[in-house]
Amino acid sequence: MSYLDAHGYTPITVTHFVQSHANNVDALPERPVILTFDDGFADFLTHAIPILQKYNFTATLYVSTAFLDGTSLWLSREGESKRRTLTRDELRQIDTYGIECGGHSHHHPQLDMLPPHVAQEEIVTCKDSLEQTLGHQVYSFAYPFGYYTSQIRQCVYAAGYTSACAVRHMMSSEQTDPFALARLWVKPTTTPDVFGQLLEGVGQSALQTFYLQVRTPVWRAIRRCSSFVTPYKWVEGVTVRGYNM
């Protein structure tokens, strides 16, 4: 955040970016950047918000609504199922800070591995839950794990969202499909120098090549075969095929 501030970047929300382009309004700052946070962990409020407020930055937070007021049960395989997630009251508090809250599905499954009607329910339930909690419309969505298909993208559009983020390890532009927005993955090991290079477009070709490799039909087939081994997981009384837990 210090780097962004020192180099004249102005954070905006995903919806600000999409609406500015859709309305043909030249309302973007000179050096716009979008900060996104996935899942809805409680440490977004305790750790990220103070830093964002220090620099007067906004961001977009994507929330998996089934786990509000609980813990990160979808991370059981990673041994992180006890990480506290945001409560609904905390989410409402974050909303008052000017942070955009978007959908990240209800149970955080690999949406492209689900039957269409189940995927649609995940997408719609998430939006309804967020809007009931926040008291206003929610416009943006992020695909869990970054996985989606043209059918999943259509489900997101039909649910009433106006944008959706993947990963893709590259930057978005005004020509990018608003339902396939690319993002750069910044890790704890990403140094300020590397971060700066990514923002300037240096080294993205290698990242994009890696992304395209892991998104091949072969990789999707491997995930699909894995889901057949344990095709259903029971979560809060809902049967979800391919649920990553």
UniProtKB/TrEMBL annotation:
Pfam families: Polysacc_deac_1 (PF01522). The keyword Signal applies. SUPFAM superfamilies: Glycoside hydrolase/deacetylase (SSF88713). It comes from Dictyobacter formicarum. This is NodB homology domain-containing protein. Keywords: Signal. Residues 31-245 form the NodB homology domain. It is found in: Secreted.
